[in-house]
Design brief:
This protein is an alpha+beta fold. The protein is built from 9 helices and 10 strands. Strands 4, 5, 6, 7, 8 and 10 form a 6-stranded mixed beta sheet that branches. About 10% of the residues have low confidence.
Length: 277
């Protein structure tokens, strides 16, 4: 048994969903169809791609505490080539504040409550008890890894776990502000801000249903967000009734599932382009 597999089994036994990483801190696909990304998943394999496997097989979605899964099937070979072990923080009820440099560490020490700390190659991981949406680049040198994300296992660290503070949650809450510039607001096309063919109640119901569709997505979140944006725009994109507040609600729902502000903006822009808006 390899050292990495032994570590993964120890993590699984302690309740941390584990998975193997190959060179470059990139996950393996856990079935033959996904070997070397042949299934068409995203190149960095950090979220499930459009694959036709019977179950999610990439990155955080593949992390497991089941020792049988970890030691059998395609993963048996993967562990022989693994260069590191990762885990899904959100699956264990944790949030990792990834501090990538000395400046980020100094900021955390001055701003956040002390908690368990794990040294990394360039900085530190600060672990908190509690889950939240993951988010990248919430400030210079700082990423948040919790739900729908994986973190490299670098040891148990030192110190006592602290409850996830509001100061960390607030870092992700700020993200929607970047997703609400005028550039992404659908312009009114002769409607003067009023929908000429739907009642306000119909629009409000439609937005609520779109939020629910995104929130209930269990896989292929990127694709679900895009299709939902496309559906909303196809119905209301030409009548001028989509205000900034409605768009912000859709973006916030997507970001709560782990999407970044940039991904939301890209999905919205792509949907508008496809519809010729």
């Amino acid at each position: 048994m390899s050292e990495h597999l032994r570590t993964a089994l120890e993590l699984a036994a302690s309740g941390l969903p584990a998975l193997p990483l190959r060179a470059g801190k990139v996950p393996f696909g856990n079935c033959r169809r996904c070997a070397d990304n042949a299934c068409g998943g995203r190149p960095n394999m950090k979220s499930p791609g459009p694959c036709t496997c019977p179950a999610p097989c990439h990155a955080w979605a593949a992390a497991t505490t089941d020792p049988h899964v970890l030691t059998s099937g395609p993963w048996r070979r993967a562990w022989r080539h693994a260069e590191a072990v990762a885990y899904h923080p959100g699956g264990a009820g944790l949030t990792v504040v990834d501090l990538d440099n000395a400046d980020a560490i100094a900021w955390a020490r001055a701003t956040l409550p002390t908690t368990r700390t794990v040294p990394t190659t360039r900085g530190e991981h600060w672990l908190y008890q509690g889950v939240m949406p993951s988010a990248n680049a919430v400030r210079p040198g700082v990423d948040i890894k919790s739900t729908m994300a994986y973190a490299r296992w670098l040891g148990p660290g030192t110190g006592t776990l602290t409850a996830l503070p509001d100061a960390v949650r607030a870092l992700a809450v700020k993200a929607p502000a970047a997703a609400r510039p005028a550039a992404v607001i659908v312009p009114a096309l002769g409607g003067g801000g009023a929908c000429p063919h739907r009642t306000p109640a119909y629009l409000a119901r439609g937005i609520a249903m779109a939020e629910q569709r995104i929130t209930e997505a269990r896989s292929a979140v990127h694709a679900t967000v895009y299709r939902t944006f496309l559906a909303v725009l196809s119905t209301h994109g030409r009548c001028g009734c989509l205000t900034e507040a409605y768009i912000a609600r859709l973006f916030a729902a997507a970001q709560a599932k782990g999407e970044t502000a940039r991904h939301c903006t890209d999905a919205w822009t792509n949907a508008r382009t496809k519809l010729g808006l």
